[in-house]
Amino acid sequence: MDLIPAPRAVEGPMRCGFLFDRDTTLWAAPGTDTTERWLRSTLGAALGLPLRPGPRDAPNSVQLQLDDALEPEAYGLDVVATRGVRIRGGDPAGVFWGAQTLRQLLGPEAFRRAPVRSGITRGIAHQSIEDGPRFRWRGLLLDVARHFMPKDGVLRYLDLMAAHKLNVFHFHLTDDQGWRIEIARHPRLTETGSWRTRTKFGHRASPLWEEKPHGGYYTQDDIREIVAYAAERHITVVPEIDVPGHSQAAIAAYPELGNTDVIDTTALSVLDDWGISTNVLAPTDNTLRFYEGVFEEVLDLFPSEFIHVGGDECPKDQWKRSPAAQARIKELGLADEDELQSWFIGHFAKWLSARGRRLIGWDEILEGGLPDGTAVSSWRGYQGGVAAARAGHDVVMCPQQQVYLDYRQAAGDDEPVPIGYVRTLEDVYRFEPVPPELDEPGIRHVLGTQANLWTEVMEDHARVDYQAFPRLAAFAEVAWSALPGPGERDFADFERRMAAHYGRLDALGVAYRPPAGPRPWQRRPGVLGRPIEGLPPNT
Ligand code: ACM
User: Within this chain, do residues 247 and 120 fall inside the same structural domain, yes or no?
Assistant: First the structure.
């Protein structure tokens, strides 16, 4: 049956089956309305089926209902020849994930936006599926700061996530190279901060620049639409406002946010090169009040429990040289600049907690201590996640060595922009999110796992597709499907199922990396298509 991610248990399929036709009706119990809408708007549109409302237990119908006996997000799907399809969910999300499985059972045409043929039979074999997720956090980070992805592309990625039963969209909205969310009280964040004059093209060591302005941002209504579209698909959007590093775009817009006693911040512009800016936020009351204002608007837009504040890669050089930062360290009785960063993050942890939210940040926020209730995204490897979980913090495992999807997916010279560790489809498939050195209760602090798409080398959605797929399909199985038992996952079986999944990705219009390597148009010409001379591996 070739389902991806693999379900827990399947009985059947039998040779007989159920045939969808124009008379197939849809009955949706209370609590299943998101799936009812999705079935009509997406599956119905793909197959040209009206799925008219019908009574409970009608023959030739799709029946949706909640089932208290199932866990959150779990579902049961029963196909009975002549009667139809019944989906039971432990909660509304479970029903929705069941509908995603139904779509896969219907073949690649169910992944198109309109029917390509009329009068064909949409058959589905008699069978029973019981399924549910291994992890409650099955995330994808999309960096829209390095390259802006217009809103339609973001909505499309939410659809691609839903098709793979991923449920947390980590929206990386701000960085040195761009600020992408409208903040009404600080309009220059987008007026100035969302545009850069030129862009390094390809690898950061490449000599080529694209000499034209790059930018864009989401209005608050765009954000509301994205959040609502995600919620319809049982996806939570976790916004990231990266502080106190990765903030040059904000400082370019409001120079007083920077360390003005060290450099002339009025001369700064949005960073046009890749890499980490040394221009970081000044640890002043003015900065705190400014970002409290930013976060107030962010909380109004995003209902998620977790708010991501970044906290990664904050160079401390300016704080070391700044008399004002040094005075702050003294006044607060702190030991050093690491503790100053901790104080900064701690301020927002308390501020968010007072508003019923929880702070999450990259694993650097562990350095210098971290308040209770905060969570950590472990990206520099497993160690941050292990230390955080042992200290009682919830963690999301996204180690760069394993699940940074901007990293090259094959050795050799063929990858379009060959950066980072080689992470093949099989490597991602064999990734185990729970660190082996953790035992209970640490294991219970692993909320789940996340794949990260940083977009320095991805200037449009075809490039994002190329880096994301097919590896995101393997990642989805890691995040959703329980380990088949002691030992390793069966990659040969996954590859066999992928043969069918490529057909679904084709129907969805995903520009994935083919198993045989990039298509000619997916390669890069000249220096961009090869490792840069003199550069160490894994950079
Ligand atoms: C990161 O990759 N700097 C979180």
Answer: no
Is residue 475 included in any domain, yes or no?
yes
- Claim: this prediction has a pTM higher than 0.85: yes
* Domain's final residue, options 100, 131, 162: 131
Kindly provide the b/e burial profile for residues 90-120, where b requires at least 16 CB atoms within 10 angstroms of the residue's own CB: bbbbbbbbbbbbbbbbbbbbbbbeebeeeee
Say how many Å lie between the CA of residue 302 and the centre of ligand 1: 22
Q: pLDDT digit string (tens) for 188-201?
A: 999 999 999 999 88
125 class by beta-carbon count within 10 Å (0-12 exposed, 13-18 middle, 19+ buried): middle
Q: Do 396 and 460 reside in the same domain of the chain? A: yes
Which pLDDT tens digit goes with each residue over 47-68? 999 999 999 999 999 999 999 9
Structure-token pair, residue 524: 């890069």
Known active-site residue 175: yes
Is 456 inside any structural domain? Answer: yes
Parallel, antiparallel, or unpaired: how do β-strands 375-378 and 394-397 relate?
parallel
Q: Which residue has the tokens 């549109």?
A: 45
Provide the 8-state DSSP code for 40. Answer: I
230 lies in the same domain as 109: no
Cβ neighbour number for residue 59 with a 10 Å cutoff: 12
Domain residue limits at 436:
137-284+362-529
Domain count, the chain: 2
Q: Whose CA is nearest to atom 3 of ligand 1?
A: 312
| Cβ of 404 less than 6 Å from ligand 1 | no
Question: What pLDDT, in 10s, does the model give residues 92-132?
Answer: 999 999 999 999 999 999 999 999 987 666 889 999 999 99
**Measured between alpha carbons, how far is residue 459 from residues 67, 178, 179, 207, 368 in Å?**
44, 14, 16, 17, 36
Residues 24, 88, single domain; the answer is yes
Please tell me the distance from the alpha carbon of residue 315 to that of residue 319, in angstroms, as a whole number. 8
Give the residues across from 224 on adjacent strands. none
Both 156 and 205 in one domain: the answer is yes
Active-site residue flag, 246: yes
Whether residue 275 is found in the same domain as residue 404 = yes
In a domain, residue 21? The reply is yes
Q: Is 431 in the pocket of ligand 1 (CB under 6 A)?
A: no
Predicted pLDDT of residue 527: 46
- The answer to whether 313 is a known catalytic residue is yes
What local confidence, expressed as pLDDT, does residue 538 receive? 45
Q: Tell whether ligand 1 has an atom less than 6 A from the beta carbon of residue 362.
A: yes
Looking up residue 500, the CATH number of its domain turns out to be 3.20.20.80
Among residues 131, 166, 189, which one ends one of the domains?
131
Handedness of CA 277, 206, 170, 196 (dihedral sign): positive
Q: Is 401 in the pocket of ligand 1 (CB under 6 A)?
A: no
Ligand 1 centroid – CA 379 distance (Å):
6
Segments of the chain with pLDDT less than 70: 119-121, 486-487, 525-539
Cis preceding-peptide flag for 30 (omega within 30 of 0): no
- Among 249, 194, 183, residue whose Cα is nearest residue 220: 183
